[in-house]
Amino acid sequence: MDYLYYKAINWDDIKDNFDKYTWEQLTTNFWLDIRIPVTNDQPAWQQLADTQQQAITRMLAGASMLAVYQSEVGTPAIRHDRRTQQEESVLNTITFMKSVHAKSYTTIFRALIPGNGGANFTWADNNTDLQAEIDQLAQTSTNGTALQKKALFILTETGLSFGKYWPTLQNHSLVNTYQMLANILRGSAIFSAYVGYKFHLGFDDLASSDQAELQHWINTQFDQLMQTEKDFLEANLEDATEAINLASYGANHALTSLGFDASYEVQPSPLVAQLKKLMIDQDQFLQQVTAANNESDTEEMTDDDYDF
Prior knowledge:
disordered C terminus, mainly alpha
């Protein structure tokens, strides 16, 4: 009888270098919300109009709801399809960092609107469009296939979040709040690139007919969720044009991360260009992994390893 129920993780026995590289990127990018002095943004916050303040807090409350979902449901749901033990460790770290992302919004509210943050969370909890997004995501997390879960995980990090960041990203006077979102976006870039890569591995194992069926399902789900997101942005922003543009860019990034063609119209803008600098595409990720592996191999060589 085999009594080995658990196997120790040997990080010197790497089955997939993406796991090692992503782990290093995640730990290098590690940060905590309490280390960013958001209270220093109070003077700039007081200079904003009431409508601007409301847009920022409500959109961030909506983003918080998605971050909580990702930490409690979205990321754990994709852990069941792990290919390596190291992948489990990477996803555990992503789960923790999504909890940090979720807590960051409370830190922002505590600094900018002391004692009033709870009202914004209550508003988000009662918003029908936000609840519709969560309900649709939850159905897939509960009943979907491993690849379906990965696809919607990436869309949640990008298309369903980027538009909600717009009111804050356009206010550069909120320096530390802006820095908080930049940290969140860097994390989302790594998460999306990694999960997208794992999606590719599973997608390539499917028969052509199953690939076509899955792609159709993804396109349908994306269209439904992005319409709900558009409705949410239009209902809660005075002018949602650029927010929708950022959301569309995020949806396109999710599609390309999965290996599909971008399908949403995006207009060039300074904020889109800014997001592009933060995000990571699959080819870039592969190149970085290859370069890191080559550098590691060179460092580990001794004189005896070279043939002069």
